[in-house]
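Archive entry. Fields below.
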Amino acid sequence: MEGSWPVSEAIEPKAVSEIMTQDAGGDLIHMNMIQAINSAMDVMMDRDPTVVVMGEDVGFFGGVFRATAGLQQKYGKNRVFDTPITECGIIGVAVGMGAYGLRPVPEIQFADYIYPALDQLVSEAARLRYRSAGEFIAPMTVRSPFGGGIFGGQTHSQSPEGIFTHCSGIKTVIPATPYDAKGLLIAAIEDNDPTIFFEPKRIYNGPFDGHYDTPATSWAGHADAQVPTGYYRIPLGKARIAREGGALTILCYGTMVHVVANTVAMLGIDAEIVDLRSLVPLDIDTIEASVRKTGRCLIVHEATRTSGFGAELLSQVQERCFYHLEAPIARVTGFDTPYPHSLEWAYFPGPVRIREAINKIMKD
Amino acid sequence: MTDPHHSGAAQGEAGRNLPPLRLHVPEPPARPGESADFTHFDIPAADAAPRPDESAQPADIRDLAYGLVRVLDENHAAVGQWNPKLPPETLLRMLRAMALTRAFDARMFRAQRQGKTSFYMKSTGEEAVSIGAALALARDDMCFPSYRQQGILIARDWPLIDMMNQIYSNTGDRLKGRQLPIMYSAREAGFFSISGNLTTQYPQAVGWAMASAARGDTRIAATWCGEGSTAEGDFHSACTFASVYRAPVIMNVVNNQWAISSFSGFAGAEATTFAARAIGYGIAGLRVDGNDVLAVYAATRWAADRARANAGPTLIEHFTYRVEGHSTSDDPTAYRSAEESSLWPLGDPIARLKQHCIALGIWDEDRHAAMDKELAETVRDAARAAEKNGILGHGLHHPMESLFEDVFEEMPWHLKEQQQQMLDEWKAAGL
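PREDICTED_STRUCTURE:
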């Protein structure tokens, strides 16, 4: 494939109605989240010759988490290539490639490393459409593993999604299952706006129930790990009801969806668990309907609390559902400290803290 | 006990008898009230720099990063190996584009002083950097400019009224009044949207060039930044990417000696040249007399041919002088010697080309005066036409609700909600 690019094709955004009616393509097979993400890039590179994958160690080696394994062999070095270790450069180059007409999918090896790229993301990619009144766009999808629970210490554990949701012009998407990871990543790549795609690395290989001292489980046998081999997309901005219930609403995303689900099961409480999937755009209708139904709301995320995305969720729920609330809205989040190494499980918003919060909300 | 975080001076190990360390904080040669002195400048003869083959190895041409590529000599003749030997019509086109840029700057600077807009930046004395490059590049090569390359748009015959509409942020502004004046965007002219954040365009230009190479295209990219912002990380990320992938890109550093009030020493000029930054990255580096439009043309052409031949990127330092303030917001007499610009040893780029054309017998003072008059009228007419679309702050702007457009391709609910709230509030206030 190398050096044999097809002629450039115009990028035609698809209508939502068309998107919604497209069938999930191919047979269902078991995939863990890494395989699902790899499959999404494979499908998109095959469908769209303008899609390019770049980042530190993503080429020959296939990425430190193996998410890009096999793509360089299949699509060539002109479309899948290793980069120098400069996140500012990676994103800046991706902005230029987008201006040329490509659809870059840069990887930032850990979300903790994304800060050197902030100016290129926040001041450039996110503002390009606006400042040029649509003359230039930055249709890139920045993939990056995020979150803790792997003893990564303060530089391999952070959840910086709130930094991006605070900035205008950029979307932030976080999957919680292999099925969603593939469908959302395909939608993000096809989207003509820049998208941060944070991958909860603690659940790459299996759902995590929050009990760090029990054996890890794999995705084997999990219904959401049955993934179509072909093309399908999950529209950005549509939440998923991970569990229907009437006692309270729990808003969460990524790894915390599974930790919350397990805690709810242990308590035997009839909670409604909303997996947000996408923070910007946010599925406010699903949130509002759920809280109006249950009258109680808990927000769970791993990121630090102050000015975290939970603060925005709390405000939205308060503004829209105040007269339906029967208890104060509560948050369970990471603490406002750096992510500690040895005390990771004290920091992590695990089952103990979630259970306490649920009990308090239900008593109020 | 002493505070372990503040061990203080003179607390080294007893008996070591070491001299105290000194911090060097650069200071420009002349401040206000002092005499400027450029006699220490080493200006090589116009024909001194050799012109290597475009495919030369960077390691073999390192001297060019410390010398000065020049063409026009003191007798107004075009000399040496870098002489591009341009036909008279091209010389006169260059002269006209530079003069038009200066006339445009004069008019728009005055418009800002008259309160018709918020901000302006002149390129006085630096016109050759943009015009020489624009004429050496192909029309479809992609430019990623900084904020002082208005000359590229003018050399590419972009309508003046379109630029002025942007400066006035009026109803005719294609950018819908969203950008600070002079932050143009002109895709059709191969002119990327200008950012106010410095040198972010550098890795973007490299990325565009990499995409062009990966697609087997023939177009190349060029980018510009000031000497001050070579200190930004983006500059070094871009140089690394350009070197690693041998990207078909020309990276221009406009060394106009001043970054607002900070002289070039704060970007490292006391230690080496800016062209020499290329050497560490293993890419070709040229240092050029930026007030000699023929030298700028020749160097750009060399770099463009090199890029088109897949021989790699080039970093060009344009040695020039910022005659005016950084922008309408600063007074240069507050931080530098008032004499500097008149003593600048490399002269005025327009005067130098004019004298060259006169020496060639293709131009004269009368024709030059007539051209200046005509260009002033052209600019005045364009400004009057643009002002019919409005000036900043006088009501003729894009609709209020347009401020929510183009944040995303499709407006999400939260922006629609905020847009409606704004309109409702204005309506309730009777506005």
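CURATOR_NOTE: Chain B has two domains: 58-387, 403-431.
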